[in-house]
Amino acid sequence: MTDVLISGASVAGPALAWFLRRAGARVTVVERAPGPRDSGYAVDFRGPALDVLAEIGILDEVRSHETRMRGVTMLAPDGSVTGELPASTFAGDLEVPKRALTRILHRVVDAEFLFDDTVTALEQHDDRVTVAFESAPTRDFDLVFGADGVHSAVRRLAFPGTDPIEHLGMSGAGFTTGNLLALDHQGLLQPAPGRAVYAFSADDPAAMTVSLSFATATAELDRADRAAQEAAVRAAFADHPWPQTPRLLAAMTAASDFYFASTCQVHLDSWSTGRVALLGDAGYCAAPTSGMGTSQALVAAATLARCLAEAGSDHAAAFTRYEKELRPYVTDNQHLGRQAVSTFGG
């Protein structure tokens, strides 16, 4: 029985864990967070990702949490209506709250979870990988998978000296507040050169999710503290003409779930080295603007697991086939991510 480690317990990690457990592997999942992540806003699924949910056996349950968004109203910077976008523009074929997907995946995955921990060292051998953790004892695994996001610890250790992150010129803050704009399964989008406001209310009528995006030359703010990040958002929107903007900025400061990130992509010549492979944002983030992050994570997990099953004990052949099959899909998604930056005001 193969003994594998997966770093990251968001979407790609638990999905891969489910498929590998079905194939008979022993699976350990290590996650930096102290427990299953209850953060995140809405995630959407498109095309083949629905087939993956069905294969795992959770499609109907996931559908029961559908946000049922009705569409997005386009606004000029002064608040006047300029048009409407269909719900599918942001919601894809199916959209659910991120926390609902996370809870479902964690419930159906039969694996050992190491929460509040992370990988600190990898030593590859011909027949195993020795992994050191921040808290847990050092252990050997047959294979290691990095599904730990754009700033992947596994990627940093397995691909030393590489800097595969490309900043696409936009950063932004996200947070939840009261439904200040009285939205009902509806979104508002104000795209403008250099900045954009997006707000929506979906599953909870009393709550509204807000995203304030603006042009940035680098991703340095990602490493700053919240005070500096908030200051940058306020500076970017200080002269914004929409009368609601000051209310949104005040709500940002009061929000308990404030989140800041830059719009980035990850580009690597290879997604594997030895007995270590990457999937999801860790290996090939397409940028949030692609609308394909969750779908790509699910499709990647299913593809990687199938390639491993078909290759038997030849992990190198499995990794080669996985990349050959998936890279065209990833390339298309990354193209979408680049195209959409301008729509969001980048």
Automatic annotation (TrEMBL):
<dbReference type="InterPro" id="IPR051704">
    <property type="entry name" value="FAD_aromatic-hydroxylase"/>
</dbReference>
<keyword id="KW-0503">Monooxygenase</keyword>
<dbReference type="Pfam" id="PF01494">
    <property type="entry name" value="FAD_binding_3"/>
</dbReference>
<dbReference type="InterPro" id="IPR002938">
    <property type="entry name" value="FAD-bd"/>
</dbReference>
<dbReference type="InterPro" id="IPR036188">
    <property type="entry name" value="FAD/NAD-bd_sf"/>
</dbReference>
<protein>
    <submittedName>
        <fullName>FAD-dependent monooxygenase</fullName>
    </submittedName>
</protein>
<dbReference type="GO" id="GO:0004497">
    <property type="term" value="F:monooxygenase activity"/>
</dbReference>
<feature type="domain" description="FAD-binding">
    <location>
        <begin position="2"/>
        <end position="330"/>
    </location>
</feature>
<keyword id="KW-0560">Oxidoreductase</keyword>
